[in-house]
């Protein structure tokens, strides 16, 4: 014959399981995390964006970034509640600044095959373009290495605003 355990034993076991779950979640930080706090810094008011001139993506007119990616960065800054501090330069210089924690985001027609993927975080491709030889390129943005909460926020924004064919 089936014998049911006393009600008290089930309560104690349930409380123990619930307590274990609470302790496990309290001991581990939220994932993803930013070791350097990039997302918090940006949300506090300043997005340090680096752009490298690249036709169809970023142009510099009168010392100001213009073009599709400059507008994308402006929209992201608005989404994050931040003002933009622009840095204009070549990709190598900008990636070094990204690594050093001096920039939060880099754009300039960077493709998913970028050689900088070992030195920077790379977003998922958010659009495609065609190169001079007629080959399709997948375009990405760069973020500081290891700043995964910020990377997630940028990708969330891109998913909400861009159409990847």
From TrEMBL:
It holds the Pfam family SBP_bac_3. Residues 57-161 form the Solute-binding protein family 3/N-terminal domain. It comes from Glutamicibacter nicotianae. This is Solute-binding protein family 3/N-terminal domain-containing protein. InterPro entries: Solute-binding_3/MltF_N. Residues 1-26 form the signal peptide. Gene3D superfamilies: Periplasmic binding protein-like II. The lineage of its organism: Bacteria, Bacillati, Actinomycetota, Actinomycetes, Micrococcales. SUPFAM superfamilies: Periplasmic binding protein-like II. Keywords: Signal. The keyword Nucleotide-binding does not apply.
């Amino acid at each position: 014959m089936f014998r049911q355990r006393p009600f008290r034993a089930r309560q104690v076991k349930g409380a123990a399981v619930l307590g274990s779950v609470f302790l496990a979640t309290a001991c581990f930080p939220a994932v993803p995390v930013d070791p350097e706090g990039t997302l918090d810094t940006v949300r506090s008011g300043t997005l340090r964006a680096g752009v490298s001139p690249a036709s169809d993506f970023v142009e510099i007119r009168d010392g100001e970034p213009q073009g599709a990616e400059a507008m994308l960065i402006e929209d992201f800054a608005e989404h994050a509640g931040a003002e933009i501090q622009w840095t204009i330069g070549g990709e190598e210089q900008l990636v070094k600044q990204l690594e050093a924690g001096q920039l939060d985001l880099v754009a300039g027609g960077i493709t998913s095959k970028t050689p900088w993927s070992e030195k920077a975080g790379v977003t998922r491709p958010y659009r495609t373009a065609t190169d001079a030889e007629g080959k399709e390129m997948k375009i990405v943005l760069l973020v500081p290495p290891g700043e995964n909460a910020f990377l997630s926020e940028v990708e969330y924004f891109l998913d909400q605003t861009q159409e990847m064919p």
